[in-house]
Design a protein that fits this description.
The complex is a heterodimer. Chain A has ten helices and no strands. By secondary structure, chain A is an all-alpha fold. In chain B, α6 runs antiparallel to α14 and α10 crosses α12. Chain B is elongated. Chain B starts with 8 loop residues before the first helix and ends with a helix. The relative contact order of chain B is 0.11. The chains are: A mainly alpha, B mainly alpha.
Chain lengths: 210, 287
């Protein structure tokens, strides 16, 4: 997990244009961090830690392991900062985080751990939307709980593909570059993952249809 | 052997489900999409599956972000822990894709090759003089072909001779100088060319009588060398000292040439080593 394997980060289409103000800011911060300014790197961490945590927490069921994976991803990014050559720091960092999460999932496959986080954490509640109707909130919460539980039960590679596509909004080619598989494999994983979710939630589909 | 299609109900159901999932994702086109649409229109289960997949896709996309429970900013202690050791930094530098390792390796190898060429090319470091000395032929007069052999036989006698009179009339050379018997015919041109091969012969000519022989210079290079050696070394000098005084005429370039050769080989090896290390480490990093 030390070195992000060369799944060609340059091949990943940047989420932000190189001309974007965010990309320019990131580039400047990277340069300052390369000069030894830890504060500059920590500004990058502050900018992207929510994104990375959200992504990895969806991929790694165990919350502690997910946090460790994110921390390791930032460590790895710091160690390998010199290998970053643009264009998008966000894409580069996301790829490192995905690699860290996938490494953890491989390890977890060998040594299974507890199920998905939110199910064990009774204090966790989904953020309330504009609709504050208690019944709607309860239904939404229950829906998310069972969906998250089902997500934790499907195969790791399918879960990763679904999270990247449906939750994070990457397209097929970006996911293929990030995960180092072909476009067809990405599509297949997403299709099979959705079918697996539906099979797992067959008894609870009324909750979603309502 | 062709693929035998599986027409069992289970296989058909799996295939249909995959088709519906692809339709839901919008990944079908042409005949496949028409086929999937027909399935949805004719099969209740397929239509239900398509509706469920669509609902689940929307629900998945609507999943809220998982709240972060930890601050991932790095501390000074983290940075100190993450800093690689010196060996790790060296390996990192060697394997870095954009490091200066390859140009440096190329430069070192080029220097090594150039040094090898220089050290093995005739004409450098007194090589010409050594070439002359090893052949010997250019300074031998045609009619004295056997004279050299005679000299080899006579020389030991000369070396032990107490005086130059020990070999009277050995050669038609002037006066009673012993060396000309072992040497080619004197020529003005040859006199100016130092002939290192003759040095051992001259070196064997020892004894005060040889040093004291008048008019020995001017007959040949050997005679000149012997004469200069005799002048350089005092009469009471030992044999070794006299030999040492004689050798510089042809020997001084050898150590320099060897050193250059060794240095060139070292540079070449360093260049190749750097190149190989860079290549191996980069391949390892990519693997």
């Amino acid at each position: 997990m030390d070195d992000p394997r060369p799944r060609s980060p340059e091949d990943v289409t940047p989420a932000a244009s190189p001309d974007d103000a965010t990309a320019r800011r990131d580039h400047l911060l990277v340069e300052r961090a390369l000069d030894g300014e830890l504060g500059a790197f920590n500004q990058l961490v502050e900018a992207y830690q929510d994104l990375c945590h959200s992504l990895v927490a969806r991929m790694v069921p165990d919350p502690d392991q997910a946090s460790d994976a994110v921390q390791e991803a930032f460590f790895s990014a710091y160690r390998n900062l010199r290998s970053y050559h643009g264009p998008s720091f966000r894409g580069w960092l996301t790829r490192i985080a995905i690699n860290a999460a996938m490494d953890l999932q491989r390890a977890r496959k060998r040594r299974p751990v507890s199920p998905y986080p939110e199910l064990d954490d009774e204090s966790w509640q989904p953020p309330a939307g504009g609709d504050s109707d208690p019944e709607t909130i309860a239904t939404t919460g229950e829906r998310q709980r069972v969906l998250v539980a089902a997500m934790g039960a499907i195969a790791a590679d399918q879960r990763t593909a679904i999270v990247l596509y449906d939750v994070e909004g990457y397209d097929y080619s970006e996911i293929a570059a990030m995960t180092g598989v072909s476009l067809g494999t990405v599509k297949s994983r997403i299709h099979r993952g959705r079918l697996a979710l539906r099979a797992l939630l067959a008894d609870r589909m009324e909750l979603f249809r309502s | 052997m062709g693929h035998v299609p599986d027409h069992t109900p289970v296989a058909a159901a799996i295939e249909h489900a995959a088709l519906i999932a692809a339709l839901d994702a919008g990944d079908l086109a042409g005949i496949e999409r028409d086929r999937a649409a027909t399935l949805v229109g004719t099969c209740t289960g397929c239509a239900s599956l398509l509706a469920d997949l669509s609902v689940l896709r929307a629900a998945t996309a609507a999943l809220p972000a998982v709240p972060r429970t930890r601050d991932y900013r790095l501390t000074d202690a983290d940075v100190a822990r993450l800093r690689p050791p010196a060996w790790g930094r060296l390996v990192g530098w060697l394997g870095a894709p954009r490091s200066k390792v390859r140009p440096l390796a190329g430069g070192l190898a080029a220097l090594g090759i150039a040094g090898l060429l220089l050290s093995t090319t005739p004409g450098f470091f007194g090589q010409a003089a050594m070439t002359l000395s090893t052949t010997g032929a250019p300074v031998v007069a045609p009619g004295d072909a056997g004279g050299a052999g005679a000299a080899r036989e006579v020389s030991p006698q000369l070396s032990t001779a107490p005086t130059t009179q020990a070999v009277p009339g050995a050669t038609p050379g002037p006066k009673a100088v012993p060396v000309p018997a072992a040497l080619p015919a004197p020529s003005p041109a040859a006199a100016g060319v130092p002939a290192p091969s003759a040095i051992p012969t001259a070196g064997m000519v020892t004894g005060p009588a040889a040093a004291a022989t008048p008019g020995s210079s001017g007959f040949s290079s050997d005679a000149g060398a012997m004469d200069s050696a005799s002048k350089a070394a005092p009469p009471e000098a030992s044999q070794a000292e006299r030999n040492a005084a004689l050798t510089p005429a042809s020997e001084p370039a050898r150590p320099d040439r060897t050193m250059l050769l060794a240095l060139s080989l070292a540079l070449l090896a360093a260049g190749i080593g750097l190149f190989v290390a860079n290549r191996v480490l980069r391949h390892r990093a990519q693997a």
